[in-house]
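Q: Make up one entry.
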Amino acid sequence: MTVERFADGEVSPYLVDVIEIGDAVEVRGPVGGWLVWRPDADPQPVQLIAGGSGVAPLMSMLRTRQATGSTVPFRLLYGVTDPDRAYYGDELARIVAGGGVTVDLRYSRRVPEGSPLQPRRLGRDDLAELVVPPADDPSVFVCGPTGFVEAVADALLALGHQEHRIRTERFGPTG
C-alpha cells in the first residue's frame, strides 16, 4: 500500500501519523472499478496513466508483466508535481531496462534541473503525443486524483480511444 500524506487529507494523516503495525483496518474496493490486467487474456498494448500516488496499482501490472515474462508492450505516462514526488524511480528504471516498457514522466510544478520540459499539468496534447494511439486498440488504465482521472479519460475519448478500453480508478473527493 502506498500512502501520500496531505496535511488537509481526509485519511492520509491518520495512516501516516497515527496507525501502527498490528492495528486493524477495514479495506474496501476502490472508487471507479478494478484495475486488473491479465496477461493471458489481453495481448493488446497496455497504456498506463498515473497521477501522483495513483501509480501504485499500476506498478502491480508492471510487476505482473515482468514476473510472467510477458512481451506485451507497456507504456506508462506518469504525472507528478516535481521530481522528488515520483514513486518507484529505481524500480521503474529496472523494469524499463528489461525491455518492452516505456516510461514518460511529466511535471506540473517543477521539472528536473536541466530538463527541456516546462512544468504543466498533463493535457490533451501530451496524451496525443505520449499515449499508445487509439488505432493500436490499447488497454488503458488511469489512476490518480478524481479531477486528474476525469480530465484524462475525457481527453482520451476525444482523441478516439474506445470507452470500453479505458479503465479508471480515482481517489479523493468524488463531487
Summary: The CA atoms of residues 83 and 174 lie 27 Å apart. The chain has one domain: 33-171. The mean pLDDT is 91.
